[in-house]
Amino acid sequence: MQWxxxxxxxxxxxxxxxxxxxxxxxxxxxLGGERMKAAYYHGADGLGxxxxxxxxxxxxxxTWAHLFDPPPPGTLLTxxxxxxxxxxxxxxxxxxxxxPSSLPSHLEILRILSTEPADTITLIAIGPLTTLATAAxxxxxxxxRAKQILVMGGAVDVPGNMTPVGEFNTIADAVAAxxxxxxxxxxPASTMxxxxxxxxxxxxxxxxxxxxxxxxxxxxxxxxxxxxxxxxDEVYAKLKPxxxxxxxxxxxxxxxxxATFKKVEALHEGHEVGGGATCVSxxxxxxxxxxxxxxxxxxxxTFIEREDIRIETVGQWTRGMCVVDRRDRKRAIEGxxxxxxxxxxxxxxxxxxxxxxxxxxxxxxxxxxxxxxxMFGSS
Length: 379
Prior knowledge:
Layout: H1 2-6, H2 14-18, E1 22-23, H3 39-42, H4 50-53, H5 79-85, E2 99-100, H6 105-115, E3 122-125, H7 130-138, H8 140-143, E4 148-152, H9 168-171, H10 174-182, H11 207-210, E5 217-220, H12 222-225, E6 229-231, H13 232-244, H14 248-267, E7 279-281, H15 283-292, E8 302-307, E9 310-311, E10 322-323, E11 355-360, H16 366-376
Helix pairs in contact: 6-7, 7-10, 13-14
């Protein structure tokens, strides 16, 4: 922002400056299964090794050493954050752009949901669902105050990216995904994982105690996200002139995005090494795009509503699989107790999950331009 100001450009990031985000530390182990990492693709730092290749864009480690220390009495802010938030004018320290919380992230989520009006908070999940499932377990009725949960994860009608059927975010903690999706069900117990939790969480209340409200999950699986791409040539056209002028943001983004392009070329067929058409899929940004597009006509986004998508948690080869019923069977009518020959009660009107799966957006090639312009401005 300082570089933009010095060069007579709009500073941008109005929302960030108006309302600093709260940062809290999440869970580092899954509820079930072994801990998975994606360093093979994203690098050890999650950004293609940019902290080593471009250390001048990184903060010294001691900057973060005490950032999440216990708070002073009577406040949720850490001592470091309490000092930083009262700094006027703001300094260039990185932590002046956000407020660190001393609460673990699942409790921070519950705190926000309990203090804000119901149906005003949208949660966006672009990683494993461990923290959200933990929050839901510790405060289910508070968690259900959320307006909706946007989940980037799963593969329904396409192959997975970690196994033939498993997508990373879902397979990394299939138990957490199953628990979270269960809160969309008229009867959450009908789709809860049977066993396999390393971390024991409280069970959900009985149907009577839980009440009528259910969770609204909007799912953005690989089926959709993979088709929304960012090409190397459009990144270079936008960022290289800015980097040549000295933009720290353009230089930093070029570093880790270029590392991702090279990884795509190494892992997948059909990409010319160094070619402009090499592209990365915008999996996570698509969820944010939907949230930011809330005011646009709903017709631009298409969903399959109330789909019974269940998560396999114990299969040797199928853990993390999104299971849907593809049988040509009649569903039970309301009031019908059961359907013969229906193991798992997939055809029941009062069992199973109710997930809204996104299948259409304003355009597969629209997001790249929207994202570049929102970050770097118009050309």
